[in-house]
TrEMBL record:
It comes from Diaphorina citri (Asian citrus psyllid). SMART domains: RWD. This is RWD domain-containing protein 2A. Residues 30-149 form the RWD domain. Pfam families: Prp3_C, RWD. PANTHER family: RWD DOMAIN CONTAINING PROTEIN 2, RWD DOMAIN-CONTAINING PROTEIN 2B-RELATED. InterPro entries: Phi-like, Prp3_C, RWD_dom, RWDD2A-B_C, UBQ-conjugating_enzyme/RWD.
Length: 329
């Protein structure tokens, strides 16, 4: 499989801010005050922690040396009297010099709709001009565009859109592996695939959530190791892995590529044992922080612990594929 090599702006590394951190935080408080006045009904504007604003104000007044926590809040709105949305907003300290993280949750959207909408939302946020507050513009865009991803059960939507469901993981169904004769489309299970993916870095909460949601939707197992570099492994049917990889690699990345694809062609008897080819029981985030690493900022992995993890999963051979040298636990 050919590697993808794509530009990413999700975590700018060489941008020189035009505003100081104090100026950024002052602008954030001004924008939050405006949003609170716009969404003033009870339950519409919810701060993750009520002390956040006080802590930021204390820092701005130079009465605190340590940086305050990031400002996190949720805005709850209803679009066209039927689509209830939770708009989750995370403001990095240097916003608006860098982009905010924004994603939407809704019980009226199935998992695929929600993921696709958040991918488009992420592109819209990244397109906004730096150093200018953009939250109102983004919220307005959400209200105008979410209807394009929603179906209220009309005839057209019945065939394309299904209610949000949480499919059982491999660990939940490993004792109930379907037989060849009962598979709805047995050809889908004729090839078991495992993709090993490398990214320059994985920081964005939106991208990480998309990876987890798509994996659950497609019964894909594996892991994502956020940080710098970012490492991902997915495994499942060939069709599901191709679909997952297509959607993820088409997000905005600085660099992402598939280092290795392992494929196993299965005959009729092997299809009954499809899940026995898996190295992982579910798809989840893992973390191996170096003791010298700042977990909140640089996310550099502990190489020894990662090699130990791969060894336990009988995948130690991939360490050299990723880094060019043999691992040591």
């Amino acid at each position: 499989m050919e590697s993808s090599d794509i530009i990413d702006t999700d975590q700018p590394e060489n941008i020189t801010p035009t505003l100081s951190i104090t100026e950024c935080l002052e602008l954030q408080l001004q924008e939050i005050e405006m949003l609170q006045s716009m969404f003033a009904n009870p339950g519409e504007f919810i701060m993750f922690n009520e002390t956040m604003i006080d802590n930021v104000q204390t820092f701005i007044s130079e009465q605190s040396e340590g940086l305050p926590n990031h400002l996190d809040f949720t805005i709850k709105i209803t679009v066209e009297d039927k689509i209830k949305l939770n708009i989750c907003i995370h403001l990095p300290h240097m916003y608006p010099c860098i982009e905010p993280e924004i994603f939407v949750r809704s019980d009226q959207l199935n998992r695929r709709q929600e993921t696709d909408f958040n991918l488009d939302l992420n592109k819209m946020v990244l397109s906004q001009e730096r150093n200018i507050m953009c939250l109102y513009t983004v919220i307005d865009w959400i209200q105008e565009n979410v209807v394009n991803f929603y179906s209220d059960g009309n005839l057209f939507g019945i065939f394309l859109l299904t209610p949000k469901v949480f499919l059982p993981s491999y660990s939940q169904r490993k004792n109930q592996v379907p037989t060849y004769s009962t598979l709805k489309d047995s050809r889908k299970y004729e090839t078991f695939s495992r993709y090993w993916i490398y990214s320059h870095h994985i920081y964005s909460k939106i991208k990480r959530k998309a990876m987890l949601d798509l994996a659950a939707d497609m019964n894909i197992t594996g892991f994502v190791l956020p940080g710098k570099p970012g490492i991902v492994c997915i495994e499942g049917t060939s069709l599901d892995c191709e679909d997952w990889w297509y959607r993820i690699r088409n997000m905005t990345w600085k660099k992402i590529l598939c280092k290795k694809v392992e494929e196993f062609q299965l005959d009729k008897t092997a299809i009954d044992r499809f899940d026995s080819y898996r190295k992982f029981e579910d798809f989840k985030e893992i973390a191996f922080y170096n003791s010298k690493s700042n977990m909140k900022q640089d996310y550099h992995m502990d190489m020894g612990e990662f090699f130990k993890f791969l060894t336990e999963k009988q995948c130690a051979y991939m360490f050299k594929e990723y880094f060019g040298f043999d691992g040591k636990s």
